[in-house]
From TrEMBL:
Listed SMART domains: TPR
E.C. code: 2.7.7.108
Organism: Branchiostoma belcheri (Amphioxus)
Broad class of the protein's primary localization: membrane
Protein name: Protein adenylyltransferase FICD
Encoding gene per record: LOC109470816
GO MF term (any one): ATP binding
Length: 360
């Protein structure tokens, strides 16, 4: 419910938005709905009406998010329930088609021989690229070139902290653990695997906390993770879910994204949670035949916003964000190897935004 200071303004904005909508002034209506939501993000009436407005714009994905958020606040809200019966099938069909298109690109990439020179080159470049971006998201100021130099020469970069150097070395060790140990092992993902990933991520920066659950309460923006006394049980529940029929029946992108989200929601470690969750996400994707997916520094705001939406009860925007990053990574790989295609390689068309289209 809006505070006394804003409730009148929210009601006025909602009323005026309806008027603008009625008279076809949709840009003004959009601004008024967004203003009302900024004042009171959990107002069920605003969420529901804005969702209906977005439906009229054929933005079913965002409309569905509004209804989902409204139902998180008030589960029995009749209008939101009714409206979501319309949008959910639209969203599910979009996801089905999108995942099918992404799978087609993955299957095409799998055809490329492992000894293909272009594939080997893009894998190497992507390795440095991943370590740079996953650290940069957490505030590391080393550039891509400096990150690569540290890994290739093991020499220090002037003007940068020891912690930043150790973050690069830790990520390198964690990536090697994924590639050389976990990828070759048959069987379920264990809690011990997640702890070993974290031990390598943080081992050179904070050896006392690396590979150990946090013993203090932490706060992540508006999200308050479980109390430290609950962490071990929450992780046991998470590990059970990781290996459940429910999780394994999901599309790999859904599985990877939700696993990432569940881990950062628990926030089991003092530090290194995001880097560990992104590695777990990639372990799941790589086991399904996808290349390791990078979330770029410039996508950090979108990444965090999608996680906030998940905290508010709707994980779909985060799944869609991970899907977008997965497709972009596949496009980069396909574009890199197109100069040396395999037999029966289809024609690829590269759009201005970098997206690759497979033309049968």
């Amino acid at each position: 419910m809006a505070s006394e200071d804003h409730s009148g303004e929210v009601a006025a904005s909602l009323h005026l938005a309806k008027e603008m909508r009625l008279h076809g002034k949709r840009d003004k209506a959009t601004k008024l709905y967004q203003h009302a939501l900024a004042l009171d993000p959990h107002n069920v009436e605003v969420l529901t009406e804005y969702g209906e407005f977005l439906e009229e714009e054929h933005n079913y994905m965002e409309a569905d998010h509004m209804y989902t958020k409204a139902l998180t606040v008030r589960p029995g809200h009749t209008q939101a329930l009714t409206n979501r019966l319309r949008t959910l099938p639209q969203v599910m069909e979009y996801e089905r088609r999108y995942f099918t298109a992404i799978d087609k690109k993955r299957d095409l990439l799998i055809q490329v021989p492992l000894n293909n020179a272009a594939l080997r080159r893009i894998k190497q470049e992507s390795y440095y690229f991943y370590i740079y971006h996953t650290n940069a998201i957490e505030g590391n100021t080393l550039s891509l070139g400096q990150t690569r130099a540290i890994l290739e020469t093991r020499m220090a970069v002037g003007g940068k902290s020891i912690v930043e150097h150790n973050e690069v070395i830790g990520m390198d060790e964690a990536m090697k653990y994924l590639n050389n140990t976990l990828m070759d092992r048959i069987g379920a993902i264990r809690i011990e695997d997640i702890m070993e990933i974290h031990r390598r991520v943080l081992g050179h920066c904070d050896p006392l906390d690396a590979g150990h659950y946090r013993r203090t309460q932490v706060y992540v923006g508006r999200h308050i993770p479980p109390h430290p006394i609950e962490v071990e049980n929450k992780m046991l529940e998470f590990n059970e879910w990781l290996n459940s029929d429910e999780a394994l029946s999901l599309h790999p992108i859904q599985f990877a994204a939700i696993a990432h989200y569940k881990l950062v929601f628990i926030h089991p470690f003092v530090d290194g949670n995001g880097r560990t969750a992104r590695l777990l996400m990639n372990l799941i994707l790589m086991q399904a035949g996808f290349p390791p997916v990078t979330i770029k520094l410039e996508e950090r705001h979108e990444y965090y916003e999608a996680l906030v939406k998940a905290n508010e009860g709707d994980v779909r925007p985060f799944v869609q964000f991970v899907a977008k990053c997965t497709e972009r990574t596949l496009d980069e790989y396909l574009y890199a190897v197109e100069e040396n295609p395999t037999k029966d390689w289809p024609h690829l068309s590269r759009l201005d935004d970098g997206k690759v289209i497979i033309i049968d």
